[in-house]
Design brief:
Blueprint lengths: L22 H4 L7 H13 L3 H6 L17 E13 L2 E12 L2 E14 L2 E14 L23
Antiparallel strand pairs: 1-2, 2-3, 3-4
Length: 154
Amino acid sequence: MNSADSSSVCPCGSGREYVRCCQPWHLGQPATSPEALMRSRFTAFVLKDPDYLRATWHPDTRPSELELEGSPDWTSLQIIAASEKGHQGKVRFRAVYRVGAGWGYLEEQSDFLKEDGRWYYLSGETSEGPLKPGRNDPCPCGSGRKYKVCCLRK
């Protein structure tokens, strides 16, 4: 696993430091909500931590193996909607990734289930496609700068 600097901004897009955001979940504390679990799972994809991803995947749908070699370079996460009712939760999100010199996105409506005080990712319906940011759009890398002065120049 690649580790994040504890004082760095968390990759999940919350704007908080990793140590105060997703790191406690990565160290074994149960996520407090489906959204918190989704954010921590995105961060685990960024950090290439398959063990955490498998541990937070519901046993009924968990893959026997999870290899992250060759997975996309995930750059940003946007939570579109999140809800929970009793022991069930839903999170709709958009994750952006870099593909060579271009960009792509994955949107998912994820289902979560709470068992024994822990939230688990159950399943999701996904759609995926290319992302074509405009020059004046926010850069998909998550820098907060305009695309034309950030990654368009690279």
